[in-house]
UniProtKB/TrEMBL annotation:
Transmembrane segments: none annotated. GO terms for molecular function: ATP binding; metal ion binding. It comes from Chanos chanos. The keyword ATP-binding applies. One of its GO terms (biological process) is cell division. One of its GO terms (cellular component) is cytoplasm. This is Translation initiation factor eIF2 assembly protein. Keywords: ATP-binding, Chaperone, Cytoplasm, Initiation factor, Magnesium, Metal-binding, Nucleotide-binding, Protein biosynthesis. Belongs to the CDC123 family. Residues 50-61 have a biased composition (Polar residues).
């Protein structure tokens, strides 16, 4: 995979070309201070509310009271809040409103799909910049976009300069069973895979032929020869009326999940087989179509490994205030132990 291919798959490159066939979206340049904030591990995300804690101890006596964290509002407290970006925030809010109040956020290539568990609604639906920050700061996919977008590229030319962008897409209730990933090689649609391969969807096996032909028609009429590359992967959605929509464009290579195919098969040049019939599709001039059949039962969700223990989640969202207090007590205890050790000095 070449760096050029990755550059071409940025949202702002393909959106103007295929605007009519995809979900309405707004692209906002991401200011450098926002990028820095997203990459800063140390900043606590506290939106709206303020977290206060005792900043310093006033005396050194060992009274019982000191074991408790004191929550007060006097001068000795410090306030930890997320930084604010008033100008950017108002642009984002304006765009969200223009898109109907609820959006799906992404960067140049990726959405924070690995972080949906952290949101209170367990979804990527956002209504404000702080909703977006919570997801972005918790996502390895977003960090990948910001720090190593060209990691899987084989050419050793210098990395192209990237202008980072926040993409806000109108929220759309997509049914996972209607999503398909299409592999295009040398401008030819060679394979179609069900996107949510962890589930078996009856309608797919029943309507296999019509799904495949509507996707082929969509590709031929609206996408083929119109994208700057001849190798790419497109994600589509077939709605309940049978209309096909473009959802995303991805590089043709390892960085993109090959789903029910393997990259070895896709790049080998050999003709691909359908999963259902096992038939060689080369003679039929139509793409191989793969979906999960009923024999395959429960499969783990692909993003499961990104999750962390419930305790940490409660802490991070502040849902369980007592856990947060326990955590702070624990921290305070550790710090005291450390400072006691320092006071004692080196033992001889
Ligand atoms: N506008 C939207 N509203 C709601 N859900 C969406 C929207 N766009 C995409 N999705 C869902 O999110 C998934 C990932 O979106 P996608 O743009 O392909 O991100 P990525 O490239 O990071 O995988 C899609 O498969 C779809 O289920
Ligand atoms: Mg994608």
């Amino acid at each position: 995979m070449k760096k050029e291919q990755v550059v071409n798959c940025q949202f702002s490159v393909w959106y103007p070309l295929f605007k009519k066939h995809t979900i309405k979206s707004v692209i906002l340049p991401l200011p450098q201070n926002v990028i820095d904030y997203l990459l800063d591990d140390g900043t606590l995300v506290v939106s709206g509310s303020e977290l206060t804690s005792q900043s310093s101890r006033t005396n050194n006596s060992d009274s019982e009271e000191e074991e408790d964290i004191q929550w007060s509002d006097d001068e000795t407290t410090t306030t930890v809040t997320a930084p604010e970006f008033p100008e950017f925030n108002s642009k984002v809010q304006e765009a969200i409103n223009a898109l109907g109040g609820r959006v799906f956020p992404k960067l140049n290539w990726s959405a924070p799909r690995d972080a949906n568990w952290i949101a209170l609604n367990s979804s990527l639906q956002c209504q404000s910049l702080s909703d977006i920050f919570l997801l972005f700061k918790s996502s390895d996919f977003i960090t990948h976009d910001l720090t190593q977008p060209f990691i899987h590229c084989s050419d050793d030319s210098p990395d192209p300069v990237i202008n980072y962008e926040l993409v806000l897409r109108k929220w759309s209730e997509l049914i996972p069973g209607g999503e398909y990933r299409c592999f295009v090689k040398e401008n030819k649609l060679i394979g179609i895979s069900q996107r949510d391969y962890t589930q078996h969807y009856q309608h797919i096996s029943k309507q296999e032929a019509s799904i495949s032909s509507s996707i082929q028609e969509f590709f031929r009429d609206h996408i083929q020869y119109q994208f700057p590359d001849e190798d790419f992967v497109l994600d589509v959605y077939r709605d309940s009326r049978g209309r096909v929509w473009l959802i995303d464009l991805n590089p043709f290579g390892e960085v993109t999940d090959s789903l029910l195919f393997t990259w070895e098969e896709l790049t080998s040049g050999n003709s691909l087989t359908d999963n259902q019939t096992g038939e060689d599709t080369a003679l039929q001039e139509c793409p191989a179509f793969r979906y999960t059949t009923s024999e395959v039962t429960v499969q783990p969700s692909p993003c499961l490994s990104y999750r962390i223990p419930r305790d940490f989640l409660d802490l991070s969202t502040g849902e369980d205030a007592y856990k947060l207090i326990d955590f702070l007590k624990l921290k305070k205890g550790q710090q005291e132990e450390e400072s006691d050790e320092e006071d004692a000095g080196p033992q001889s």
